[in-house]
User: Which sequence fits this backbone?
């Protein structure tokens, strides 16, 4: 049997040839196995074995597809990309220990509170085993270290040993002072951002899973929710499929998707809304269906209150031609709904949160260390245009060089320089992202110049609006640089920038969909391997 297998392999190589792609796949396969085995010897975590097997599965699967199956853009978008995105998402969900993802514990506790609400329980209730895990400072440590993995693995129990309920007020309250055991009520994120992950936690508690499996199951549900939205976006968009796929497989996007962060679903909804609007814009002479109209309005309305700054995407609706509707009145009504209903829904659901900004007063900052300090106010910024211009200009001059690496994942976790990628690697990821905007044989449509200019303007407005929000909410009025602005906040609107960069003057005489998916999926697992190496040696 062994001789026959060797003969078959020899015959396959003789007929098909052993090229550079085969050599690359073999090198990646060996590298992932060696790295995964080495890391497991240090931390003894089953999650590392799973991540290694997922990496091997991706390499073998893409190698087989490249060898024997068609590589049309439709096949890549409908079959290869969804599988690769979910596998990479699972790996990122399992790889990072609790607490090592930005604001991970905050997002977990609000999700846990929602799981209680869905089960018709007190929002502050928690299983004793879960409370013990989350109060363990070694488990919720922000640093990405080998010790962090070992501690999490030591705490692992498949089924919970203590299901007795305890009250944990920090699930729904912020502890602001040492003498205040409760603090103030936390505004829970909107349900459209948290219910899927909360269902994962609720299911884990229902079947009695231990605290660690429960934690990661909730992450997986959040990832699947965002991934499904992104997969729908890639299928529906008539232009820029390569852009959507490349942006989705960037390490930072996967890092966010594989966490409890509500930014994951926001990215998915923003991509889906962009795809729906592009579909309405680029459908030729075919009439816009009722389903497309309803879906676009629904996604725009649901996304709006999540983060107001991303409402800039809605303005793409202005480019939907009237000829795609049965009457001009229908076209106007559709555009009014896409622009107006999200505003009304946002005001209705976020009025209390928006009131401090609209009144021009100080928000006081969301961070406990800002209590009693004064942040910038909208009124103050508007009353001194020169100082405001200098504040924004100085922020861009000082921090723009950081935004691009942060956008693609050059600095993971809590912006830990210890596990950051080398600068050349970060900019190589930026190059791949921008390369996805180049016209190719399998994705060659381009927007008119006027629409591309508007896309740039919408992207810039989103950046400035994000800076304004953080100036009011996070930046002391004595600071000369706006605090808290990160490149990852631009992921939901990065498609606008990529659409603007696509020009008729540049085209590659090749299909890029499969090479992009293969390259970025391989890089994503090498990214995890690099972080593991730095965690062991740093």
Assistant:
């Amino acid at each position: 049997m062994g001789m026959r297998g060797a003969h078959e392999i020899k015959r396959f190589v003789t007929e098909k040839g052993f090229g550079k792609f085969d050599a690359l796949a073999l090198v990646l396969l060996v590298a992932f196995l060696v790295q995964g085995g080495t890391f497991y010897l240090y931390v003894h975590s089953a999650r590392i074995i799973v991540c290694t097997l997922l990496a091997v599965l991706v390499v073998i699967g893409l190698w087989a597809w490249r060898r024997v199956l068609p590589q049309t853009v439709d096949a890549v978008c409908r079959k290869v990309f969804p599988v690769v995105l979910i596998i990479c998402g699972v790996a990122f969900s399992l790889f990072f220990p609790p607490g090592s993802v930005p604001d991970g514990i905050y997002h977990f506790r609000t999700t846990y509170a929602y799981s209680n609400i869905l089960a018709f329980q007190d929002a502050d209730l928690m299983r004793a085993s879960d409370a013990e895990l989350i109060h363990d400072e070694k488990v919720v440590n922000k640093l990405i270290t080998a010790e962090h993995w070992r501690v999490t693995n030591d705490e692992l129990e498949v089924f919970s040993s203590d299901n007795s309920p305890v009250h944990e007020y920090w699930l729904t309250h912020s502890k602001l002072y040492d003498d205040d055991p409760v603090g103030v009520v936390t505004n829970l994120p909107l349900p459209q951002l948290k219910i899927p992950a909360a269902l994962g936690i609720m299911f884990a508690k229902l079947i009695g899973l231990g605290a660690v499996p429960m934690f990661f199951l909730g992450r997986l549900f959040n990832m699947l929710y965002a991934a499904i939205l992104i997969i729908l976006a890639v299928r529906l968009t008539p232009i820029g499929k390569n852009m959507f796929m490349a942006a989705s497989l960037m390490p930072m996007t996967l890092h966010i998707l594989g966490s409890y962060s509500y930014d994951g679903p926001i990215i998915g909804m923003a991509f889906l809304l962009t795809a729906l609007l592009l579909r309405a814009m680029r459908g030729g002479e075919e009439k816009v269906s009722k389903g497309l109209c309803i879906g676009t309005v629904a996604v725009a309305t649901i996304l709006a209150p999540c983060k107001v700054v991303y409402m800039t995407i809605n303005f793409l609706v202005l480019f939907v031609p009237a000829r795609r509707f049965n009457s001009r009145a229908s076209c106007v009504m559709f555009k009014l709904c896409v622009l107006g209903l999200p505003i009304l829904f946002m005001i209705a659901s976020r009025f209390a949160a928006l009131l401090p900004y609209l009144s021009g007063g100080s928000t006081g900052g969301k961070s406990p260390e800002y209590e009693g300090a004064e942040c910038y106010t909208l009124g103050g910024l508007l009353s001194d245009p020169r100082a405001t211009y200098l504040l924004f200009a100085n922020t861009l001059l000082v921090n723009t060089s950081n935004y691009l690496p942060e956008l693609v994942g050059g600095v993971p976790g809590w912006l830990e320089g210890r596990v950051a990628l080398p600068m050349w690697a970060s900019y190589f990821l930026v190059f791949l992202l921008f390369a996805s905007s180049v016209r190719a044989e399998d994705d060659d449509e381009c927007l008119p110049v006027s629409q591309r200019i508007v896309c740039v303007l919408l992207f810039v407005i989103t950046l400035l609006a994000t800076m304004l929000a953080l100036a009011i909410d996070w930046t002391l009025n004595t600071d000369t640089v706006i605090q808290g602005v990160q490149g990852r906040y631009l992921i939901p609107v990065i498609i606008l920038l990529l659409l603007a960069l696509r020009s008729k003057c540049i085209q590659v005489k090749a299909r890029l969909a499969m090479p992009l998916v293969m390259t970025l999926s391989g890089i994503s697992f090498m990214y995890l391997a690099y972080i593991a190496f730095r965690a062991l040696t740093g």
Q: What stands out?
A: The longest strand covers residues 125-127. The two ends are 47 Å apart (CA to CA).
